[in-house]
Specification:
Layout lengths: L4 H12 L16 E4 L2 E5 L12 H14 L7 H5 L2 H14 L3 E5 L2 H12 L5 E5 L4 H8 L4 E5 L4 H9 L7 E6 L11 H10 L3 E5 L14 H5 L7 E5 L9 E5 L1 H10 L1 H4 L6 H16 L2 H20 L10 E7 L1 H13 L2 E2 L2 E2 L9 E6 L6 H17 L6
Parallel strand pairs: 2-11, 4-5, 4-6, 6-7, 7-8
Antiparallel strand pairs: 1-2, 3-9, 8-9, 10-13, 12-13
Helix pairs in contact: 2-12, 4-12, 5-6, 5-10, 7-8, 13-15
Keywords: Acyltransferase, Pyridoxal phosphate, Transferase
InterPro entries: Aminotransferase_I/II_large, AON_synthase_class-II, AONS_Archaea/Firmicutes, PyrdxlP-dep_Trfase, PyrdxlP-dep_Trfase_major, PyrdxlP-dep_Trfase_small
GO molecular function, one term: pyridoxal phosphate binding
Length: 393
Amino acid sequence: MADFRVLADELAQLRTEGRYRPLRVWESPQGVSMMSGGKTYLQFSSNNYLGLTGHDDVKRAAVQAIERYGVGSGSVRTIVGTLDVHAALEAELARFKGTEAALVFQSGYTANLAALSSILGADDAVISDELNHASIIDGIRLTKATRKVYAHKSMEQLEKLLRESASFRQRVVVTDGVFSMDGDIAPLPDIVALAERYDALVYVDDAHASGVLGRSGKGSVEHFGLYGRVHVQIGTLSKALGVTGGYVAGSSTLIDYLLHKARPFLFSTAPTPAVAASCLAAVQVLERCPQLVRRLWDNADYMRSGLQALGFDTGASETPIIPIVIGDPAATARFSDLLAEDGLFAQSIVFPMVAWDKGRVRLIVTAEHSRQDLDLALACLERAGKAEGLLSA
Ligand code: PMP
């Protein structure tokens, strides 16, 4: 029988390059302390920024929704799949984001595919930061728009590309709000000013910014005070909000258009009632508890300065995403394995997620980590850093 010899060869190549990563199976709930293979790890790799995955109100909302509606949603949204709980979630998200309307999708990834493939046509130009998330890249690939890429956060290049794009029907500038591999923040005020000068639309993916940036965690627009000046805000319900799903927030024209045109919306079954209800509860918890966001930032700042004081290279990080940049994939994997042996789980991120020589162990600090957790992690990182020659002994 024919087999996947070509694929097997590629897998063997991944092994020789230190890029083969079997899935690790966890036996405990999301949290700072998690068990895998019977061993407990202090964990710094979850996107559960505010600890909402296990919040009582969020869990209770899911259970009650299952009791009331059952587990499935029965159809796509446009047939019998739109429940009152979906509508309530969308109204809440629009209020949370300060937009006229919002539309929920099965994931943040899907939200990007849906929005980009719907908004952009063959006569349009899309201008994208080179470090934008894969779901943005994939969404753009689905369109016939002319794609232009600017060097990471280079406003000079962005301006040049905007100037060259005057003849297109629409110009859409797309950026992550917080970049997921480096933890730096997009210069949104500059992007918005340039977009306004060159009559372009602004599209921000706030997957790692919602629940994180802004005094009350509303994201990039709140952080920079740019209400009414960003045309598309993408969010995920799977990171700080702790559940699963994604959404697009913007004008009622945008949302009405997506509702009629976005293929992932039209052709995929609605998120389950339990997901919609628990997401709604999670947004309400966040709105009630802005102190969670403050705790997250206190922890992130403590950890970043602790790492820098030890002598680690934390790259451009300015958020709870803190990379320790190491270099080639094999050295990066070795460092992550050494930490795991010592009881600290911090995922290694290597090519193609980042450039070949920019392999890193990415730490994600959450509001749930205690000071003691952070100090334990710093001690462990110091030991591994010295053992691997990343820090002087
Ligand atoms: N956009 C960005 C910037 C992300 O980091 C992610 C998650 N990796 C997504 C979109 C996709 O979100 P989700 O996991 O909800 O599909």
